């Protein structure tokens, strides 16, 4: 698992990220990563991603994401 994913999981566990979040929420809770990372990582690793990447997130109809546990 990537360091970025570990940061996201830690932020959710600490309560720094709500159960459903957007890329900007992740940027605030997990600072220090390249700006484009926040907008690319979540959709790239969502359930049903077209690239076949490891799935970590569920994308909801309102545009938020949540961790798949």
Structure characterization notes:
It is built from three helices and two strands. A two-stranded antiparallel ribbon has the order 1-2. It has one domain (3-67). The radius of gyration is 11 Å and the shape is globular. The chain has helices spanning 3-14, 23-29, 35-44; strands at residues 57-59, 65-67.
Spell out the blueprint of helices and strands:
Layout: H1 3-14, H2 23-29, H3 35-44, E1 57-59, E2 65-67
Antiparallel strand pairs: 1-2
Helix pairs in contact: 2-3
Task: Offer a quick outline of the entry.
The chain is mostly helical. It has helices at 3-14, 23-29, 35-44, and strands at residues 57-59, 65-67.
**Shape descriptor:** globular
Tell me roughly what share of residues is in helical segments: 40-55%
The main pleated sheet reads as: 2 strands, antiparallel
**Approximate strand percentage:** 5-15%
Order of strands across the widest beta sheet? 1-2
What is the number of beta strands? 2
SS summary, helix count:
3
Give Rg in angstroms. 11 Å
**What is the overall pLDDT average?**
96
- What order do the helices and strands follow? HHHEE
Q: Distance between termini?
A: 14 Å
Unreliable segments (pLDDT under 50, ≥5 consecutive)? none
Domain module count = 1
Structural class given helices, strands, pairing?
mainly alpha
């Amino acid at each position: 698992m990537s360091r970025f994913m570990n940061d996201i999981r830690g932020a959710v566990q600490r309560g720094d990220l709500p159960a459903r979040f957007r890329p900007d929420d992740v940027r605030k809770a997990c600072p220090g990563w390249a700006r484009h990372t926040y907008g690319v990582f979540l959709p790239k690793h969502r359930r049903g991603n077209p690239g076949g990447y490891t799935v970590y997130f569920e994308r909801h109809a309102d545009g938020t994401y949540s961790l798949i546990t």
